Amino acid sequence: MAQTARRTTRTIRNIMPASPQDRPKQSGGSAYWSATRRPLTCLIFVIPLLAAYEAGVLYLGGKDSDAFRGGADAWLRGGLDYFGLNRPWLVPTMVVVGLLIWHVAQQDPWRISLGMLSGMLCESVLFAFVLVALAQLHSYGIKSWQSGGAPSAAIPAERAAALAVVFLGAGIYEEVVFRLCLLPLCHGLFRSSGIHPALAAFLAALATSLAFSLAHYVGPAGEQFRVFTFAFRTFAALFFAMLFMLRGFGITVGTHAAYDLIVGLVLINPS
User: Fold this and answer.
1) Phi/psi at 89 (5° precision)
2) In a 10 Å sphere around its CB, with 0-12 CB exposed, 13-18 middle and 19+ buried, how is residue 52 labelled?
3) SS in 3 state form for 29-72?
4) Are 33 and 19 in contact (CB under 8 A)?
5) CA-CA distance, 188 to 183, in Å (whole number)?
6) For residue 228, what pLDDT is reported?
7) pLDDT at position 271
8) N or C terminus: which one in the chain shows less Cβ crowding within 10 Å?
């Protein structure tokens, strides 16, 4: 398992451009840039979101908590259930253990800074607003916002809480599946075919972004296919892939969750 983790680490490093933070001596901004991408820092940043999601699902759903699980979380649990591994704690445990194995494989220091976590939160919100602005520009270009730009309406508190839980889960587990797992895997496959690293990174980002977008229209809970939503989700996934390569897993999760919360609870009428 350690050898597999080291290979995964090398693959992830290969799809992230070399930069000054990879040098032995760091200070100031470069030290922050490097530390916020480390697996342990990402884990500590993501754990509150993961805990809030899992607690929210259990609180809102009770014995029927699976009804509040959707998307990538449901896929992961369904795959494990196929093999008889249907423990409710197994998926979040796998995320935590996976990041810890990655941390050990990289031989990173066992220390973090609360200031760095605050900076990661600020970055996540900032990048989320950037994506919101890009989404608005895209919607103006298409002359619609999803189903026609209906004005937002007040959301009942109970429904808002349920939606917030769903959006947190999407931000975490979609990034686990499509960026943390599939993106390095696709990059490794393209590199094994002899493709240049930069082109392999682009193709991996594009392939996983198309898969991310298509996944929203598959299965009994899938949406009706629309060119606008498919095109924007592909663009958003490319945005998240770029963030993952440049700023790491934690900030990508934070950005995805913040974007979904802003759009789903504020900008679009979800009823």
Assistant:
1) -90, -5
2) middle
3) HHHHHHHCCCHHHHHHHHHHHHHHHHHHHHHHHHHHHHHHCCHH
4) yes
5) 9
6) 86
7) 42
8) N
Assess contact for 171 and 254: CB atoms under 8 A.
Answer: yes
Does residue 263 contact residue 132 with C-beta atoms inside 8 Å? yes
CA–CA dist 187, 204 (Å, integer): 5
Per-residue confidence (pLDDT) for residue 141, from 0 to 100: 56
CA distances to 2, 82, 89, 92, 124 from 128, rounded to whole Å, are: 34, 35, 29, 24, 6
Tokens linked to 139: 């919607």
State how far the Cα of 233 lies from the Cα of 231, in Å rounded to an integer: 6
- In whole angstroms, what separates CA 222 from the centre of its chain? 19
Give me the pLDDT at residue 129, please.
96
User: CA of 236: how far to CAs of 46, 78, 131, 218, in Å?
Assistant: 20, 26, 7, 18
pTM over 0.90: no
Quote the CA–CA distance of 201 and 249 in Å, as a whole number.
Answer: 16
Distance (Å, whole) CA 77 – CA 70: 10
How many whole angstroms separate alpha carbon 173 and alpha carbon 164? Answer: 14
H or E element, residue 114: helix 114-142
Write out the two tokens for 226.
């629309």
Residue 91 near residue 76, CB atoms below 8 Å: yes
Q: For residue 37, which of 102, 125, 101, 132 has the smallest C-alpha distance?
A: 102
Supply the pLDDT for residue 21: 41
